[in-house]
Amino acid sequence: MTAFVSTGCASTIDGHAQPAIDVVPATSTATPTTKPGKPTTGKPTASKPAPTSSKGGKTDFQANVGDCVALGGTVNDATIEKAACGSRSSNYKVIGKAKTSTGCVGDRDNFYAETLNGIETGALCLDIDWVVGGCIDVGGDEPKRIECSEHGTEPVKVITINKNSDSVDDCPDIADSGFKYAERRVVVCVQSL
Asked: Locations of Low complexity compositional bias (predicted)?
């Protein structure tokens, strides 16, 4: 965690990665919804849509919507830095900014929030940095990009990203499961490795 001290007023700004509320957090998206004929292991989400925008509160860590980041650490000791999208170090993409984490869209994978004296001052809304043809291990505390030939806890290869879809049934046959973002009507079709 990086603490920033403001000269003259002695306030501390702390950055924290927070688990998603009322949604399946990034660490749980490792259980995708399977295609018909296979048992469904995905956890349903029940949350009302929240607007996500490119404007939000204030964070000392600067990132724009569409930027990718490497998020790590713990909830109380988060680390975050910019990373090239699709790179080995990138695990999340900024999909929105909000004044607080509750302002992020409900089906996001994670968020990064900074606080001032315990009150959130800004949040970055995050999704896994999915790349078609790329592989990610979704079985750890944070998603980790891997080579498709590597082993992992729950490695998957991204086959397609279907927009305007709300069903893994729309995934091609090679994909055996998918990660569904119901509010935004996006399905990431994956093949287990």
From this structure: 25-52
Predicted TM-score of the model (pTM): 0.72
* 82-134 pLDDT tens trace: 999 999 999 999 999 999 999 999 999 999 999 889 899 999 999 999 999 99
What lies within 8 Å, CB to CB, of 131 at 6+ separation is: 85, 86, 145, 158
Rounded CA gap, 26 and 11, in Å?
Answer: 31
Provide CB contacts within 8 A for 62, sequence distance 6+. none
CB contact set of 119 (below 8 Å; sequence gap of 6+): none
CA R_g for the chain: 17
Two structure tokens written together for 85: 């999208």
CA 167 to chain CA mean position, Å: 20
Work out the burial of residue 131: count CB atoms within 10 Å of its CB; fewer than 13 is exposed, 13-18 middle, 19 or more buried: middle
Q: Is 170 left (phi over 0), alpha (psi -120 to 50) or beta?
A: alpha
Tokens for 181, please give them: 């973002």
Q: Give the pLDDT confidence of 94-107 residue by residue, as tens digits.
A: 999 999 999 999 99
